[in-house]
Design a protein that fits this description.
15% of the residues lie in helices and 40% in strands. The chain has 9 helices and 35 strands.
Length: 666
């Protein structure tokens, strides 16, 4: 994406007062253009006041933006017609350029093609420049920076010699990794060589003199990789050579220092130096956190105390003064005002993060005993699965490995169940409670053969528990069939209630007769009486949730045999909304390479929020063992219409940048 140090960050939050389109409410989305770059939000269904809360858009083509950013709100046509423009706003960036790092949160008026007002759009704007532009460099800074403690391990992985594969003879496809603490660098793979030339430069942050530099040489294979050998170099030895560093051959040993077998050696040039730019970034971050800590909690980083506003009168900690070593000694009134604005903006943004974290902590489910009640009320407009144009539906409900069923209703497409199913979930941990889901499937009963799935709906326990009175009460949901690729859209409608009660929760008592009468009156007013089927729901929109599985690293061994020790046959399985999908099984030792995509058809809007990605060990003739699970939130998954690009030269990935996730025992 280029250098993002000078960048414009735009977040489209919401819009209001949008006009209607032909056919009713609009399906709005926002298109943001800055210079030659363009980004868009997701589509909101059937609303004139959408709340996108889109991910932050980063524009680096600011120099060519003509001091303006253009936001166009469009209506997404569900048919083959072209998208319709609802309004357009041109926002000047002069305020952002003059207040670097200060967030601008405001409503901007939208105008149509004739210049008439047609609503408003809310944006969050902030402009950032390179840290080197904020603090001028002079000789005093150079002397101070050079006299500080080292904070960066800088070096080059030159080459290796005499590499020997632990399981076979001959040349290897070798690559090398170097790790200092939690920071890691890796070279490219050199094919078929026992003396590969890497020539790979690296920089890894390190301020701990007790740390170690760990170098590993591995042989890459079609499925995974094998450790050839590793070498450990203490930082004390690197520091002894000063800033020029040293160049040495490191003898490779087995895992955990195993010796006795010749594995080869790797040449390493390495030095422990002080990086001025990295030190400056840490100093500015520390100063901002110091101001934030004093402004939020007072001197002790504890609870809020009286008189916290007088914290500047007392003695300050040394680490709070590190910013003064890099800031100019004499600031003009304008520079001081800009510095104060940056600090206040940073404190305000950090306060939002703190409030969000406190809200998540308060909404977390408590460990203990849980009770789940599912009331399956009725179904309408079910898809016919039998040759007579009807179905024999019944409901199957699964909660945390437990299953209950309702009675079967013969030869209908609309029916009333009115069955209440109870589930008791004792001794749940917080992680297990938040990962559990309620899966309701409507199936067609057949006397012979497998029961066909008509449609299903899924609810997260965490989401239901966070609702008012901890219940999803007497509402319609659309049923979608994820087992048949030919069934698109809603396959029927289900009216149900789901109640989740945890430790200390009380169930609300309802007046069923009065509520039922109000429902009848409301449906008659909307023209949906008992004789008319089809509840009013937002239009179904088919999207795809794609999980890109790249690779895993340093997996634990789960079994041993006589032919190959520490062998692992694993695969990745993803679960979302009651559906699951898995990769092919990879046979490896500890570092499997998957390189696969798992596609989930999702009909929006959805009632689930949790996506589970698990790593499992395949067991022939037995039950597969789960190694670890990773949980993601659907709201945090970035939306993109151009994740994969196909051309004459092949298919290239253009989605979000891959990132590593830590795995913990399942």
């Amino acid at each position: 994406m280029g250098d993002v140090s000078d960048r414009l960050e735009v977040k489209v939050v919401a819009a209001r007062g949008l006009g209607e389109v032909e056919g009713g409410d609009c399906n709005p989305f926002a298109l943001v253009r800055c210079g030659a770059e363009e980004e868009r939000t997701a589509v909101a269904s059937a609303t004139s006041a959408p709340e996108w809360n889109a991910s932050t858009m980063i524009f680096t083509d600011v120099a060519d933006a003509a001091d303006d950013v253009v936001v166009a709100v469009m209506h997404k046509a569900l048919s083959a017609a072209r998208d319709q423009a609802l309004g357009r706003a041109v926002i000047s960036l002069r305020t952002c350029f003059q207040a670097v790092g200060v967030e601008q949160d405001d409503w901007f008026p939208l105008e149509d093609a004739d210049g008439r007002a047609c609503g408003e759009v809310r944006l969050e704007l902030a402009y950032f420049v390179d840290a080197d532009d904020d603090f001028p460099e002079d000789d005093s800074d150079d002397e101070a920076a050079s006299g500080g403690e080292p904070n960066m391990v800088r070096g080059t992985i030159c080459r290796a010699r005499g590499l020997r594969h632990p399981d076979r003879a001959g040349p290897v496809d070798a690559y090398c990794t170097v790790r200092v603490g939690r920071h890691k660098a890796s070279t490219a793979t050199v094919r078929r060589s026992n003396g590969p030339l890497f020539d790979h430069a690296f920089e890894l942050p390190c301020g701990d003199g007790a740390a170690c530099v760990r170098v590993k040489v591995k042989a890459r294979a079609a499925f995974g990789s094998t450790l050839i050998g590793e070498a450990v170099l203490p930082m004390v030895e690197v520091a002894a050579h000063g800033e020029p560093g040293c160049s040495r051959w490191c003898r490779l040993e087995g895992k955990d220092g195993e010796v006795g077998k010749e594995r080869g050696a790797v040449e390493l040039q390495i030095a422990w130096v002080r990086d001025r730019k990295y030190a400056r970034s840490l100093a500015r971050l520390g100063a901002s956190l110091g101001d934030l800590a004093g402004g939020l909690w007072g001197p002790g980083l504890g609870a809020r105390t009286e008189g916290a506003e007088d914290r500047d009168e007392g003695p300050k900690e040394d680490w709070l003064l590190e910013e003064d070593a890099f800031a100019p000694q004499h600031l003009t009134s304008r520079e001081q005002e800009e510095l104060d604005e940056r600090r206040s903006a940073g404190a305000m943004m950090a306060g939002r993060v703190v409030d969000e974290l406190e809200g998540r902590r308060a909404a977390a489910m408590k460990p203990g005993d849980y009770a789940v009640q599912v009331h399956v009320i009725e179904c309408r407009d079910l898809k016919a699965e039998d040759l007579n144009g009807l179905s024999d539906p019944y409901a199957r409900v699964r909660v945390h490995g437990r299953q209950r069923k309702t009675r079967v209703v013969k030869k209908v497409t609309s029916c009333v169940f009115d069955d209440v199913l109870h589930f008791s979930l004792p001794n749940l941990t917080t992680a297990a409670a938040e990962a559990a889901a309620v899966d309701i499937a409507i199936l067609d009963h057949d006397a012979i053969g497998r029961h066909a799935t008509i449609g299903s709906a899924s609810f997260d326990l965490r989401k239901v528990h966070a609702l008012a009175d901890h219940e999803f009460y007497r509402k319609w949901v659309g049923l979608v069939d994820t087992t048949n690729s030919a069934d698109n859209g809603y396959q029927g409608f289900l009216k149900c209630s789901v109640t989740v009660l945890g430790p200390g929760d009380e169930q609300r008592a309802h007046d069923l007769d009065a509520e039922y009468q109000r429902e009848l009156e409301r449906e008659e007013e909307e023209g949906r009486g008992i004789a008319l089927s089809g509840p009013t729901l937002p239009p179904a929109r088919l999207t795809f949730l794609v999980v890109y599985c790249w690779e895993a690293e340093d997996l634990p061994a789960t079994k041993r045999n006589l032919l190959a020790s520490n062998l692992l046959k694993c695969y990745v399985v993803a679960e979302a909304g009651g559906a699951s999908c898995r990769t092919q099984t990879r046979r490896c030792r500890a570092d499997p390479k998957f390189g696969e995509e798992l596609w989930f058809p999702v009909t929006e809007p959805v009632e689930f929020r949790r996506v589970a990605v698990g790593l499992a060990d395949y067991v022939w003739g037995g039950r597969d063992r789960t190694v670890a699970y990773l949980y993601l939130d659907v709201d945090d998954v970035p939306r993109s219409d151009r994740a994969v690009k196909t051309s004459l030269f092949g298919t290239t990935y253009q989605g979000p940048r891959p990132r590593w996730h830590n795995l913990y025992g399942a």
